[in-house]
Design goal:
The protein is of the alpha/beta class. The protein is built from 15 helices and nine strands. Helix content is 36%, strand content 11%. It starts with 54 loop residues before the first strand and ends in a 10-residue tail after the last helix. The relative contact order is 0.14.
Length: 495
């Protein structure tokens, strides 16, 4: 293992915390599962960034939490993805590679994203692990792209600082989907990855993981009639937002407030606003405190997925879904907009982000039971996915009674990476109770609390998210489907 060098220093960016080659031959007639026989439709893709040499890690100021405790570096890989790295002064020899959530929207890689993430997960470095994280080569949806960029930053670290004794993947939120995809795609190479930590992960995959936001989009419009308004250009709601729209997040919030009064004290809402809000929340199961963020995703990120990544094709469906919980379910189901997915678009989204469960590494998950963004039932989907692939023995899931999505207790993060490291080194698989019991030692250091509920198991994904016809079996994409689809020219979402 080489000793990290110290190139000339560059200033640390200070920001608010934010968040294979395809074969030429087309496989003509093989599509497995519920998608049926569909022709291979090429995806609409932005041109790949021009090839450029990767910039080597350049020394940068560390976040305040790591001052005097680590050496930090920034750079850009050959695909244009900015990255950040940190090597502790007292390095334990192992590396954590982080996959960030989102996806952030925008055309370019944001250098602040990886530096902000290093600040946010400085606890990993404080525990003696080196850390590396990619900002991904562009914004917008693309789980395989983000997984490739995560693999790239691992390789860059090894090239410049030597091969770590152990290398662990960590993914938070959508980054959980990315890290799980990276583990399936690159984890079979000996020595590449040794274990995976997924925290508050979006683990249902793209083809099913956003169905509750599809439902929110159509149920909201049924009650509110202002997204779009009757006097505005109309478009199918699966687009999220029409092409060319200049709506901003502030404009969306204003429409949500107009219809539901969600930002007002309940006493200040009109009777109509309160009934609209009650019906939307009851039917969709979306928590009131994250209603705006879910609707934002179902607007702007849906537009990115449909228009920027899938060439205007629809991967979503609510055909056959029966909505309930409102003051008048019959009227709701008769009046809500209905649509069916384009089979090729759904296949492309599935190939990009659904998980096969064919992971050969130890996987430890940590999830807040009251996560208001990535519902804890995503863990039930992931458990069913690994069991369906015959890999359930590689998974240990832990749960806490926390109420946040974007961050959990530092004591728990430190405890989780230590539990994974012990599992990998010793071969002794932990249990939820043993992980919970070991947290106290880390809480003595960080004091952020240990909130484990070792006896908890989430109900099925379908208990929280209304299933589409054929959507009860996991994995959502089998390994056989993945192999078949990988032979189709243009399948998936372009990087």
């Amino acid at each position: 293992m080489t000793t990290p060098h110290a190139p000339a220093r560059v200033p640390w960016a200070s920001h608010r915390r934010r968040r294979p080659a395809v074969l030429a031959a087309v496989l003509a007639a093989v599509f497995l599962g519920t998608l049926g026989n569909v022709s291979a439709a090429s995806v609409s893709a932005a041109p790949a960034p021009a090839a450029r040499p990767a910039t080597p890690p350049a020394a940068a100021d560390c976040p305040a939490e790591l001052a005097g405790k680590a050496r930090c570096y920034t750079g850009r890989d050959a695909d244009g993805a900015h990255y950040a790295m940190a090597v502790p002064t007292h390095w334990n020899g192992s590396l954590v590679v982080h996959a960030h959530g989102g996806p952030d929207l925008g055309d370019a890689s944001d250098p602040a994203r990886s530096t902000d993430d290093l600040e946010r997960w400085a606890v990993m470095v404080q525990e003696g692990y080196a850390w590396a994280g990619s900002a991904y080569r562009r914004g917008g949806y693309g789980a395989r792209m983000a997984a490739a960029d995560t693999e790239n930053v691992r390789r860059l670290f090894t090239e410049h600082f030597g091969r770590p004794e152990r290398t662990y993947l960590h993914g938070q939120s959508w980054g959980g989907n990315v890290a799980a995809k990276a583990a399936e795609t690159y984890g079979r190479r000996p020595g590449a990855w040794d274990g995976v930590l997924l925290t508050n992960g979006v683990l249902g995959g793209g083809s099913r993981g956003y169905d509750y936001r599809v439902d929110l989009r159509v149920v909201y419009q049924y009650y509110c009639h202002n997204h779009p308004r009757p006097n505005e250009p109309q478009y199918p709601l699966w687009q999220g937002l029409r092409v060319g729209s200049t709506m901003t997040t502030a404009g969306l919030r204003a429409r949500l407030q107009e219809c539901t009064g969600y930002a007002s004290d309940p006493a200040d809402r009109t009777a109509g606003q309160q009934r609209n809000l009650d019906d939307i929340l009851a039917v969709t199961g979306v928590p009131e405190r994250t209603l705006e963020s879910h609707l934002r995703f179902a607007t702007f990120t849906f537009r990115d997925i449909v228009n920027d990544r899938l060439g205007g094709r629809n991967p979503f469906s609510n055909r056959g879904v029966r909505y309930s919980g409102s003051h008048d379910d019959k009227a709701l189901n008769a009046g809500v907009e209905r649509f069916s997915a384009d089979p090729a678009a759904r296949r492309d989204l599935s190939y990009d982000s659904d998980l096969t469960g064919k992971v050969s590494l130890p996987v430890l998950t940590l999830h807040a039971i009251d996560d208001p963004t990535a519902f804890v039932e995503h863990e039930a989907a992931y458990r069913a996915t690994l069991r369906g692939a015959g890999r359930g023995g590689n998974l240990v899931q832990t749960f806490t009674d926390e109420h946040e999505h974007s961050s959990l207790s530092d004591s728990e993060y430190a405890n989780s990476i230590a539990a994974l490291d012990d599992w990998v080194r010793s071969g002794r698989k932990p249990t939820p109770r043993s992980v919970a019991a070991s947290c106290a030692a880390f809480d003595a250091k960080y004091g952020s609390g240990c909130h484990y509920e070792p006896g908890y198991q989430p109900a099925s994904y379908a208990s929280r998210v209304l299933p589409r016809p054929g959507g009860l079996h996991w994995p959502a994409m089998t390994a056989a489907q993945e192999r078949a689809w990988s032979r189709i020219d243009g399948v998936g979402i372009a990087p």
